[in-house]
Specification:
- The chain has 118 residues and is mostly helical.
- The protein has one domain.
- Helices cover 69% and strands 0% of the residues.
- It is built from three helices and no strands.
- Helix 1 packs antiparallel against helix 2 and helix 2 packs antiparallel against helix 3.
């Protein structure tokens, strides 16, 4: 549950909001790249909290679906306290890597692949 749910949540957030990192008209410097990476990571964490709040009553004994809101708030609060800085840094590193690779590999608007300088 702690591998599958974050993976699915990050895939959804990356699909919904991560493409803007590769769009040169929306992200044209490293500062915007880092902010977008942080936003995508925050979105993935909220999606994970929803999935976790749904999955816990289904997989663990003694939990009821009526505890969804409490589990959701608890997951957001305590999860951010314990792992928030790691999540933000990981999102920034991932976004910066995607931004750099996108600038080197993807073709520009004219259809040309950028030349590598060495």
């Amino acid at each position: 549950m702690f591998v599958l749910l974050p993976t699915i949540a990050s895939a959804i957030a990356g699909f919904l909001w991560g493409g803007a990192i590769l769009d040169p008209s929306r992200t044209n410097n490293y500062a915007k790249c880092l902010l977008r990476g942080t936003a995508v990571t925050a979105g993935a964490y909220v999606i994970f909290a929803v999935f976790f709040s749904i999955a816990v009553p289904l997989t663990e004994g003694g939990w009821t679906p009526s505890r969804f809101f409490g589990t959701f708030v608890g997951t957001l609060t305590f999860g951010l306290i314990m792992t928030g800085p790691i999540i933000v840094v990981a999102g920034m590193i991932g976004a910066m890597t995607l931004y750099m690779l996108g600038r080197r590999i993807l073709p520009d608007r004219g259809g040309r692949v950028p030349q590598q300088t060495e």
